[in-house]
Amino acid sequence: MAEDSRGDPACGGMDGRKDPVPSSGGFNFPEYEFPELNTQAFHVAAFGELWRGRLRGEEDLSLKDLPGGREVTDSGCEDAAVARDLGCSLETAAELRAVCGLDKLRCLEEGEDPEVIPENTDLVTLGVRKRLLKHREETLRIDRACRQETFAYEMESHAVGKKPENSADMIEEGELILSVNIFYPVIFHKHREHKPYQTMLVLGSQKLTELRDSICCVSDLQIGGEFSNTPDQAPENISKVRTIIEWSESHDRGYGKFQTAKMEDFTFNDLYIKVGFPYLYCHQGDCEHVVVITDIRLVHHDDCLDKTLYPLIIKKHWLWTRKCFVCKMFTARWVTNNDSFAPQDPCFFCDVCFRMLHYDAEGNKLGEFLAYPYVDPGTFN
Amino acid sequence: MGTPSGLKDDCEALLSRFQEMDSVRFEDFAELWRSMKFGTIFCGRMRNLEKNTFTKEALTLAWRYFLPPYTFQIRVGALYLLYGLYNMQLCQPKQKIRVALKDWDEILKFQQDLINAQHFDAAYIFRKLRLDRAFHFTAMPKLLSYRMKKKMQRAEITEEFKDPNDRVLKLITSDVLEEMMNVHDHYQRMKHVISADKSNPEKSLDLIKDDFFDNIKNIVLEHQQWHKDRKKPPLKLKVKGGEEKSERNSQQSERCERAESLAKIKSKAFSVVAQASKSRRHRQVKVDVSDSESGQVQTKTTRKRKNKETLKPAGKKVSSRDRGKQFFLCS
After folding, report:
1. Is B80 on the interface with A (CB under 8 A)?
2. CA dist., res. B91 & res. B55, Å (int)
C-alpha cells in the first residue's frame, strides 16, 4: 500500500496511535487534490477528531435508540428545549411545532396508495417513471427483480441496524467507518474497461490485516499441477492459504518509496490516505488488487453496530460461473487441454462428468489428455 | 445512477416558485409543496434498490442548493426541500443526508444567522433534522471511486438562483473610490504647492481630467442602479387578507409604500458596498447604524409579514456604510 503512516517507522507498534504531522492549517481537512477525483492525503484519526470536536456535547454522535415514539414525548418539555435552543418564547416554540409538523408535508389523502402515481401530476420525474412503468407492463410477462438485483439489495442491507448480542461487541460512538472498493484482478477480457469490484466497510479501529483476511481471492485457492494420472490426489478440501504480505515484495518490484512495515501493527486510524485514490494490494507474489477508499464517515445509529461483523461486505460483483460442458448444471472443477474426448480446448467439467468421461469403472485413465483442477472466479458468489 | 431524469427540473421548479413567493416562511413552502404534490415524487412502485438509489440522489441534489453560492432564499428553500424529502421518503431505514467536514462550519454559521434574524421556522427545521439524526458526517460530499468518466460531469449551478457575479462592483468598491478621491485631492494639492501661482496650478501639469474621479463615481453608481433594477421587480407590497396578526391596513400600507420608495431613492446614492479585500481591511468603511433606514441587517420578521427588505439577494449581511454615504453625497 502506498502512503502508509508517515513519521518515524521505529515508533510504530506501541499502541498503534501516532500523532499526526503538525499541520499547516487544516492539513487533516479533506480537500480535493483533483476536483471530483480524489482528495489530498490526510490522517484518518485526526479527521475523525475534527468531526468529534465539532459534535461533542450534542446528540449527533449518539448510537442509542431515540426515545420511542416521538409523538408521545412530552410536548411541553420539547417546547422548552426549542425555546432554549432558538432563543424564542415558549409560545413561539409551540407554534413552530404546529407549523412545521410533518402533517404539513403530506400530499396523499387517507386511503391513497403511496405506490400509485397520481393522475394529473406536473412532476417531470413522475412522468418519466409512468412511461417506464407502462413500458414494463407492455413488454414484461412477469415484472419482478432479477436475481442480481435481489442479491445486490441483500448485500447492501443485510447487516443494517444489526445490534450485537454481546454488548462488548458494540461499536463505540465516534468510530469511523471506511468504505473500500477492492477491484478484482482482471481475468476476463470483458472486464478490462470496467473492472468488477467488491465494497467493504471497515472500522477505523480495525487493523489492516483484518481487511486483508476478509478479501476472498481465487488466486488464494489456485492449485498448481497436472493431475490427469492421479485425479484423486488433487486436494479436495481447498483451504485458504494464509497470505503473507511483505511489503519488501513490492519493494523488489520497483515501488521503492514504500516503507517496510507490518500490516498487523497498524489500524486504519493510523493511516494517511487519499480518499478516492487507487492503492495497490499485492498478495501471492504477483496477484494485484487495486484498492480505493471511497468514503470515510462517522458511525451512525442505523449502521450495523456489531463490530464482529466488520469488515462487512456490502457490494459484490456477480460473476457468472463456468458450468460443466456436459451437464451444464454444476460449476466446473476441472479443465482439460489436448483432450481427445473434448470438443473444445480448453474444456470444463464438473467432478462427476470429468471422471465418467475420462476414466473407466476401475479408475484407469482413458485416452490422452491433460487435466488441471479449476477454481472458478465465481466460487465466492 | 447519476441524477435521475426530471428530478433536477422538479426541484428547480419548486425552488424557483418559492423564490418568486419572496418569502422564507416554511408555511409558504409547505403550501407550495402540497400544491405540487411533491411528496408523491417517491411513488410509482420502485423496488427497494431503486428506491434507495433514487432517494440518495434526491437528497444529494437538494443538498447542493443548501450551500453557497446560492442566495439566502434558495438556501432556506433547499433546507425545507431536504426536510420534505427526508421525511416523505419510503426507504426503511431512511436514507441520510451527507455533510462533509469542510461544509459543516458554514452550515452552523447559516443556522446562527437564521436564529439571529429570527427565522425561527427555518432554524427549527434544521434543529429537527439534526435531532432526528438525518445526517451522515463524512469526509467528502460524495463517494469517490476514481471512475475515469469520459465527460467530467461537473455540477452546473443554476444561474437564476445565484447572486450575480458583479465584477464591476468587486473591482471598484467604495473603498477604492474613496482612496481614488484621496489620491486625487492629494495630487491636486501637490500641484498647487509646487506651482509658482498658488491658486492656479501650472497648465503643463494638467495630465488628467479634473472631473475624472467624479465621472468614474457616476458611472459606477449608474451601474449599481442598473443592476438593482434588473434584479428586483418593482416594489410591491403584499397584504394577506384575513390574518389575525396582520398589522397593515390600507392607509398604513400606503405610508409604508412611500417610505420604502423614499428609502429606495436614498439607497440609490449609497448602495451596496462590497467588502474590501483582506489587504484593505484596515481601510474598510464602517457604518453608522443610527442613520441607516436602509439598514437591512436583522430586521425582525413577524411571522406573517412579508417584508421584502429581509430577503436580500446577497447572503451576506449588507449594511450601508455611513462614511460611504457622506462621501458620495458631498462630492
Report:
1. no
2. 8
Q: Looking at CA atoms only, how far is residue A177 from chain B in angstroms?
A: 9
Query: In angstroms, rounded to a whole number, what is the distance separating the alpha carbons of residues A178 and A297?
Result: 7
Q: Domain-by-domain residue ranges, chain A?
A: 78-142, 148-316, 334-380
pLDDT tens-digit profile, chain A (381 residues): 444 444 333 333 333 333 433 344 456 788 888 888 888 889 999 999 999 999 987 888 899 887 755 555 678 888 898 999 899 899 999 999 999 999 999 988 877 887 888 888 889 999 999 999 999 989 988 888 888 899 899 999 999 989 999 999 999 999 999 999 988 776 667 766 677 888 999 999 999 888 888 887 766 666 677 788 888 777 654 443 333 333 333 333 434 344 445 677 889 999 888 899 888 877 766 677 888 999 999 999 999 999 999 999 999 887 778 899 999 989 888 999 999 888 998 999 999 999 999 998 888 888 889 998 888 877 666
B91 at the A interface (CB within 8 A)?
no
ipTM: 0.79
Of B30, B90, B152, the CB nearest to A104: B30
Of A42, A124, A126, the CB nearest to B43: A126
Would an 8 Å CB–CB cutoff place B252 in contact with chain A? no
Minimum-distance CB partner of A105 among B10, B33, B303 = B33
φ, ψ dihedrals at B290, nearest 5°: -60, -25
A85, A88, A106: residue with CB nearest B39: A106
- Which candidate, A340, A348, A339, A353, places its Cα nearest to that of A373? A348
Listed residue (A323, A324, A322) closest to A354, CA to CA = A324
Residue with cell 520497483: A254
Q: Which residues of B touch A29 (CB under 8 A)?
A: 101-102
Report the C-alpha dihedral over residues A314, A317, A318, A319, rounded to 10 degrees: -140
pTM: 0.67
Q: Chain A residues with CB inside 8 Å of B79's CB?
A: none
C-beta atoms of A60 and B137 within 8 A: yes
Burial class (CB in 10 A: 0-12, 13-18, 19+), A68: exposed
Residue of B nearest to A279 (CA): B146
